[in-house]
Amino acid sequence: MLAANAPNAEITTLTLHPDELVSYETELGDDISAVNAAKQVSAFASFLYEGTAEAERINQLFGDSKAFDHTPYKGKMDLVFVDGSHAQSYVGSDSKKALEMVKPGGVIVWDDYRGPRRAKDVFSVLNNLSKEIELVRIANISFVAHRAPK
Ligand SMILES: C[S@@+](CC[C@H](N)C(=O)[O-])C[C@H]1O[C@@H](n2cnc3c(N)ncnc32)[C@H](O)[C@@H]1O
After folding, report:
1. CATH topology assigned to domain 2-147
2. If you take atom 27 of ligand 1, which residue's CA is the nearest one?
3. Which pTM does this prediction carry?
């Protein structure tokens, strides 16, 4: 979707390969339903964009996001879309890396800000983060966004 709607963009995307589920690191305080859901949706190693014109602008990475070395991307990304595991420790770790990867003036978007019952760890982590940085909720959708200072 991103590649199709941003025809000049190069996209790097990370997902957990179904053969790498053992590398998933649950921590104390993680919502167990979010942990189970993250593992369940990590069932794909092929994607809808394969064979499309967009595919050549998509760099598909596999791995656990906590183990992901984001160093090469620091301060370079125009847009970071956070939509991985919804367990607390992952939302925290992914958000920290997103804040380090986004370039000055760039934007981070989180999916699944759905209130205290659905994806409750996303709700609590983002509520806490909003005490430190400016976050805006996009109306009528489950997105929250942050623009990095220039
Ligand atoms: C809700 S899906 C969203 C995928 C994508 N944003 C989309 O809309 O198609 C969550 C994705 O996060 C991945 N994921 C879950 N836990 C992960 C982890 N620990 N490290 C990296 N990716 C993870 C899953 O494999 C899945 O692809």
Report:
1. Rossmann fold (3.40.50)
2. 15
3. 0.96
Domain boundaries, the chain: 2-147
Question: Residue 125 CB: number of other CB atoms within 10 A?
Answer: 23
112 touches 119 (CB < 8 A): yes
**Closest residue (by CA) to atom 25 of ligand 1?**
42
Ligand 1: centre distance to CA 23 (Å): 14
In this prediction, residue 45 carries a pLDDT of 86
Residues 62 and 42 sit within 8 Å (Cβ to Cβ): no
**Nearest CA among 143, 118, 123, 144 for reference residue 33:** 118
Q: Residues near ligand 1 with C-beta < 6 Å?
A: 14-16, 24, 38, 41-42, 64-65, 83-85, 90
| The amino acid at 57 | R
pLDDT score, position 137:
97
